[in-house]
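User: Hi! I have a protein structure encoded as tokens and I'd like to know what sequence might fold into it. I'm fairly new to this, so please keep things simple.
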């Protein structure tokens, strides 16, 4: 199977769309999961922010549509096993579409449930709803990390990969929250955004940064120690062969620079500086998604000509605009910022 995959080459454009979709889905579901976690631990400081985070459930339709377009429309450009190189229940487009639809739709619907019902429920029912939200979040993200991550290459099934991706999404979700709320300081939400919120979000971001490198190193260590060629080769491809410059750029903007910035208390209390760090982490997360997908789909290094870069940019921008516009329309119609303030 490994040899047949080596001869198979997918579509680099579909890889760009997949990376962008995973980026959007990961951040939006992380917002819902973070809000659910705040309810469970009875945190009071993020309460003014939670309705805006729960409103990420508004991405229910666009996110599901993008995922189904990938499964149904991009199957021949993304999944080597559609060429007959794999058999079984798991490697089936109908089953893949079903689990993708059900689990991800459940996360967004539960997020909307928190948005509409959290303030009306008692503490215990709210925490129970939040617990179910987290269960479906972890299930959906685990399946996505398998279907659109490890299963893009044969024999590559590192057990630490799903937690690694979940932590990465929570880190990116926290960074997106910081950037969003810094941007909304001029809105009706502004008076509720105090220095304390940004400091605590910065501490949370630092914690997820530590967890991300911890799970990433655990992933690499197990593969390196086992030294199985079909496990080592995908890691080496991403780090040293496909686009090493992109990999080390990702490490710089997702780990090295944020670490030295976020340990500074004064920086965490400055919305502008913290937003810059958040933007770096978001950039690094997108590069990470791309490096997970693209080398698996197109194992041969790509010469990024102007045409390829323009097509990539068009795909990324279009998907991001759809996601952000869906959220903005929802919070305006529901007057989230006004009611939150």
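Assistant: Happy to help. Inverse folding works backwards from shape to sequence: for each of the 341 positions I chose a residue that suits the local structure. Here it is:
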């Amino acid at each position: 199977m490994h040899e047949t995959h080596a001869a198979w080459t997918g579509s680099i454009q579909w890889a760009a769309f997949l990376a962008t979709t995973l980026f959007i889905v990961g951040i939006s579901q992380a917002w819902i999961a973070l809000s659910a976690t705040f309810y469970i631990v009875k945190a009071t400081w993020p309460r003014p922010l939670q309705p805006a985070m729960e409103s990420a459930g508004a991405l229910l339709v666009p996110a599901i549509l993008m995922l189904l377009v990938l499964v149904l429309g991009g199957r021949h450009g993304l999944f080597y096993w559609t060429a007959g190189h794999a058999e079984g229940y798991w490697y089936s487009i109908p089953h893949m579409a079903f689990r993708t639809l059900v689990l991800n739709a459940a996360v967004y619907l539960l997020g909307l449930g928190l948005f509409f019902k959290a303030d009306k429920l008692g503490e215990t029912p709210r925490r129970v709803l939040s617990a179910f939200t987290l269960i479906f979040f972890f299930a959906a993200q685990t399946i996505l990390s398998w279907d659109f991550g490890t299963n893009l290459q044969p024999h590559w099934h590192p057990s630490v990969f799903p937690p690694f991706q979940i932590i990465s999404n929570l880190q990116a979700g926290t960074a997106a929250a910081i950037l969003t709320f810094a941007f909304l300081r001029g809105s009706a939400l502004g008076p509720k955004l105090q220095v304390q919120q940004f400091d605590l979000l910065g501490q949370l971001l630092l914690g997820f940064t530590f967890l991300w490198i911890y799970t990433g190193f655990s992933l690499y260590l197990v593969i390196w120690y086992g030294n199985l060629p079909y496990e080592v080769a995908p890691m080496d491809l991403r780090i040293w062969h496909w686009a090493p410059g992109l990999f080390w750029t990702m490490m710089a903007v997702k780990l090295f620079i944020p670490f030295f910035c976020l340990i500074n208390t004064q920086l965490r209390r400055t919305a502008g500086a913290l937003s810059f760090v958040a933007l770096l982490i978001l950039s690094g997360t997108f590069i990470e998604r791309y490096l997970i997908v693209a080398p698996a789909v197109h194992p041969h290094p790509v010469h990024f000509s102007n045409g390829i870069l323009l097509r990539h940019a068009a795909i990324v921008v279009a998907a991001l605009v759809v996601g952000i516009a869906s959220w903005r329309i929802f919070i305006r119609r529901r007057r989230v910022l006004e009611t939150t303030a």
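A useful reference point when you look it over: The chain has one domain: 2-340. Feel free to ask if any position seems puzzling.
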